[in-house]
Amino acid sequence: MFKKLIFIFILNFLIEISKSTTLPGLFNVIGPFTIGEREETFDSLESYGGIFSIPIGDNTTYPSEFGHNGVVGWRQFNSSIPGQLEIDWSDTIDWSFYDTPFGWEIYLWYAYAVGDFQSTEGSNYIVNCNSARTFYIQTLSSVPGTPSVIKEFTGDFYSYGNGQNIVSLEAGQNYRFYVKMISSTRDNLSPLGKFACQLTPVPIYQVITLIETESLVPDIVGTILASPYGSITVINSGNSDLFGISVVLANSSLSLFNLNISNSANGNGTFNILVGQRLSMSFEIEIKSDSTQLECPMFLELNLVGNSTIILNNINIPFNCSSFESPYLFTFLDFDNTVQYAMAIPPINTCGNSSELCNIMLATHGANVVAADPSWTSVLPRQNNLWVLAPTGRTPWGYDWGSSSRLNVFNAIDALVTQLPGVPLSQKSLYKTDGTKIIFIGHSMGGMGCWSLLSRQGDLALGGACASGFSKLELYLLYDTAPGFAYIDQTLKGILMSSIEENNVDLISSNLVGLPLMARYGENDTVVNPYHSRRIVRMVSEQSQNETAVMISEEPNANHWFNGILNDSFMQNFYNILASNNQYLPDIPKTITISTLNPASSGSRANILILQQKQPFRISKIKLTQVYEKSQLVWIIETSNVRRFAITQTPIRQQFPVELIIDGSSFNNNFFYPDYHFENTKDNTNKKYWTLSNDNSTWIENERNPLTNGPIRQIFEKNFKIIYGTIGQGSATAQLKQGSVYINNFWNNYGRGSAPIFSDVDYIPIYSNEVCSENQNLILLGSSYQNLFTEKLIERADVSFNIDNSFTLDKSYEFSTPGSGITFIIPNSCGKGLVLVVAGIDSVGFENALHSLPKRSGEVSPDFLIVGPEYRGKGYGGILSAGYWSNNFTLSPQSFYTSTI
User: Fold this and answer.
1) CA separation for the pair 787, 726 (Å, rounded)
2) What does the alpha-carbon distance between residue 371 and residue 392 come to, in Å, rounded to a whole number?
3) What is the C-alpha to C-alpha distance for residues 332 and 326, in angstroms, rounded to an integer?
4) What is the Rg, in whole angstroms, of the alpha carbon atoms belonging to the chain?
5) Which residue, 325, 424, 328, 406, is CA-closest to 364?
6) In terms of pTM, does the model score above 0.70?
7) Is residue 838 exposed (0-12), middle (13-18) or buried (19+ Cβ within 10 Å)?
8) What gap in Å lies between CA 713 and CA 695, rounded to an integer?
9) How many C-beta atoms surround the C-beta of residue 455 within 10 A?
């Protein structure tokens, strides 16, 4: 009888499986075509009608540098697992032949895999594609001439587990599935391209779905919570927007914890979630006063409630348990009010009562490394007098330790210093920490992060040891093979590349002079060639005029990683030397040049802080020479492309000047930031006239400053809201609304971010009660004739819209070609935050503008970008205009490009 029941169960299971909708396993593939590093938008097939119009699987061939006789055609692949495919093209392409002259960047390619499937049951489905950036589902019409519906989705390119999308399929309907395959050279170290897609039906009663990989709670350290913050991420998997959703404790957790929601966008502890939107829901938890300690194993159990009804229950999040002597995870509120985590390793000794307090060793991980993984934390040795802090950079790939990753680092430091997570209340005084004295270390991508952080925040550095790193992404994988660049001249290319130059350690390597540094790498490193570390060593040594300015540790016969690379006795001796010289930071050299490409991302060096450039996004330099006159220290300062700078009182120096001579003008050194700064009042000339200014409000409100410096990427470096317009036609409103979900979801996928979304009408009462501050940015979707807030806030822009949604720059340059779109930033009303506007002349133009937004590090986007109808096909070659605003946010002839065609 038992065997018969088992047989019936298995039979029923197989029947259900056979009825379920599955993605195709048979794919027609066209490609490969060349693509550049971080080139999101380029598609050669657009020149021949586009992937949705050309015949699928026929004998037509298309030009490609990778093809025999210069062309490629369709090939068919049959996968044993539906929705999955893996290709490296080695049977048709001799990659070594291309590798010799070009290097790894030639491994970058894209192709389309196309397959058909039928939905066996009508339902909402969760669809996700790992290792794919973009995919599409097309409804195939059985009626000739009837237009089909094509829906675009963002894939989970790095396979984080948070790339879920919602699609509604009809029973019996035929669909076509397109995956734009793009190889990931840095991930696979080869030309391999692959994807793995899944289609999962959503139960009809389930309006919201938990994304299990994204649940986050702090470790239990001993018997206490390391920190009070947690979060869960969900997706609205129903057919209607959800409003007023709250997170509550389930009965099993009520006796142990209190839960509080303090930072919801609605202001009342609840959340709104649009259809298809992924949203991170943050909360605070604390142990109840009558619960003296926690015991492991333990779970936090939550429910989601809407309209007083539980809409998702039994969300069980396990706590990891650790001892105080071991690495543990603590959570904190990051710059955008989302909950992120970092790993902490406490000092061996109780250093908080010393005059120097405890200091910090900051460890930045390599690409695709999970900060909490023991394979990473186990190579970070516990130290005397130092906390070891291992931040995430938001995700395993992050933003190459720039932008949002850089901010994540310093928010983790602030959380460690102010909260001392994991330390019992009675012992916090024993571990008090000075977050302004840091030893920077890192490996691979983290080695690049190590160099980058040191070059931007030199006044926080006791020194650094950067292993197997590189100075900039565009040297690690050259950008020049990008086919879109072939269509533009060097003027436009320069403007575009300037938007990522702030991450170029080469250009600001002068800031590294005077810091105790080590470059460590394997002699035979085939992942990050030793050339990169040696290049940085050479540049710092040249600018130090000291051939031994940087210690070199080149491990014979070693590759990218070797035992002890960060923790052998040689490294520990170096750490000990840095940690022992912690009464003061390293002395300022007799001569040093302070450099920046973007004051928004650079801290002070040698107590000099550049606040504003004369020409934005061109290198700014201050050369400092220290001399003694009448036994008193004097700083001779020479400036280049600097309009405002200040002297900081911290870090405290053993010697500080009594006089400043700035480009020949003398000042007493009694005026410090933020109360005072120096302003060069001569514009449009190479003459310099410096004055002392105590204005710290008017210029901030009216001019470009570190809080509003741009470029467009800076919009994602604060808490931001997305506001879509509703005053246009209904179809336009629907597109703008879907565009807001698109932005939120790629921000969630690549950066573990989450943005509240409002219609312009719904945001009016919220905006009226908000105080303009430096803590928030806005993204506005739609022109001033589509979005009430674009109309309200655009008065500070050098852009105007017409009733047909065409637009004009500087009242002089008109753009009215169908398929054109614009993205641009302007300051908010108080000059302390940014507003990003995304708009299009028509639906195609809006989509083009939307897809020009930078999603990852290394993607170019200046202060404004205007793209035309050829943008989808030619990428950079489809850009009509680009540039940087002047310091008054007007069109700058020196930083502006436009095309007349």
Assistant:
1) 6
2) 5
3) 19
4) 28
5) 406
6) yes
7) buried
8) 28
9) 28
Q: Tokens 């602030």 correspond to what residue? A: 414
DSSP string, 793-850: HGGGSSEEE-TTS-EEETTTEEE--TT-EEEEEEE-TTSSSEEEEEEESSHHHHHHHH
C-alpha triplet 433, 408, 771: angle, nearest 5°:
100
Q: Provide the residue count of the chain.
A: 901
* Separation of alpha carbons 587 and 567, rounded Å: 27
Averages of pLDDT over runs of 10 residues in the chain (901 residues) are 47 49 97 94 97 97 97 97 95 90 90 97 96 96 81 96 96 97 86 95 95 97 95 97 96 91 81 97 88 78 95 95 97 97 98 94 98 98 98 98 98 99 96 98 98 98 98 92 96 97 97 99 97 98 98 98 97 98 95 98 98 97 97 97 97 96 97 97 87 94 96 97 93 96 97 97 89 89 97 94 96 96 96 97 98 97 98 97 97 91 65
Other Cβ atoms within 10 Å of 570 Cβ, number: 12
Torsion of CA 157, 163, 167, 172, to 10 degrees: 60
Q: Residue 38 in contact with residue 479, Cβ under 8 Å?
A: yes
Cβ proximity of 848 and 15 under 8 Å: no
Q: What is the C-alpha separation between 518 and 101, in angstroms, rounded?
A: 31
| Residue 245, strand partner residues | 271
Return the residue matching tokens 């062309």: 71
* 173: enclosing H helix or E strand: none
Inter-CA distances, 781 with 264, 732, 794, 885, Å? 22, 10, 12, 20
Q: Which domains does the chain have, with CATH numbers?
A: 23-201 (no CATH), 205-323 (2.60.40.10), 324-471+506-564 (3.40.50.1820), 591-696 (no CATH), 712-898 (no CATH)
State the amino acid at position 493 in one-letter form: K
CA distances (Å), 248 to each of 304, 312, 514, 680, in order? 6, 11, 53, 56
